[in-house]
Amino acid sequence: MDCKLAVSLMHDYLDNDLSKPQQLELKAHLLQCMDCRNRLEELEKTDMLLFSMTHHSTGPSDDLSDRIMGMLPKEKKQKAWVTWVKRHPAITAAALFLVVMLFSTVSFWSQENQLIVKGSELDKLIIEGRTVIIPPDQTITGDITVENGETKVYGQVQGNVTVIDGELFQASTAHISGQVKDIDRAMDWIWYKITNLFTDVAHR
């Protein structure tokens, strides 16, 4: 028997599918051929390994799958607020805008302490230190806004008078045709700034 035939009969031999004469002939060849003996030993080891794996209680595929899945990095769970932000981007952006605007506005409100006067006819006003005076013989056409100071109205204002973080005094001779706004609290000041911002944007 040559080695090629012997190798072809080895699998049948391990499966006990060879006839007695073929088994005897193969064994006689193995006694004479070291290479075929080594090949048969390797086949026997492989056959035993496959047998032990297929008869394992947990099953080789299950055990391998579990080990592979265990080595994979676990997916990080997102926090609830992150999920909410991703689902509501417009609301989140609006909320952030308002928070930033409120903080910046409060900061400016607390830091601004210089006198600021706004209006269309400022040349008719008298400013003494931190006091803004509308003389009794003057008529101001348009709105007047005074920040961080005292406002004394003796004459006439054909518009609104707004005093922010200050004091307003109206004499008996004073006449204001528009609204009088006295803003001396942070939230009122913030609301005033926000409404003015939107008004400026609408008129541009």
UniProtKB/TrEMBL annotation:
Residues 3-37 form the Putative zinc-finger domain. It holds the Pfam family zf-HC2. Signal peptide: none annotated. Belongs to the zinc-associated anti-sigma factor (ZAS) superfamily. Anti-sigma-W factor family. This is Anti-sigma-W factor RsiW. It comes from Paenibacillus lemnae. The lineage of its organism: Bacteria, Bacillati, Bacillota, Bacilli, Bacillales.
